[in-house]
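Hi support team,

I submitted a single chain yesterday and got back a structure, but I'm not sure I'm reading the token output correctly. Could someone confirm the output below corresponds to the sequence I sent? I've pasted both exactly as they appear in my results page.

Thanks,
R.
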Amino acid sequence: MVKLRQFQISDEIFNGYICDIDIEMAESKKDICGMVIDQMKDLFVFYKLEALIYILDSKSFHIHSDSFEEIKLGAEQDVFYVCGHCNDSELN
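Hi R., thanks for writing in. Yes, this is the structure output for that exact sequence:
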């Protein structure tokens, strides 16, 4: 069964990008982030926005405000944020 959740990028460059992810296809928050970024990257590839792909690949995206379980149990209308503001040293 498809279980869609809405995710929005929180970042100084990609802020506001929103997509729906079937969380039944994910096993972790890292998987979710990968799916969100892959969808955005597919859009950039389609429109040949190579500079944006390069910037996207240089960033570390993560979800730090909700647990994977909270996302799974959340309502369909909830929006979960994928952060691109923190650098790698802030994640440890």
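A quick pointer for reading it: The mean pLDDT is 93. Let us know if anything else looks off.

Best,
Support desk
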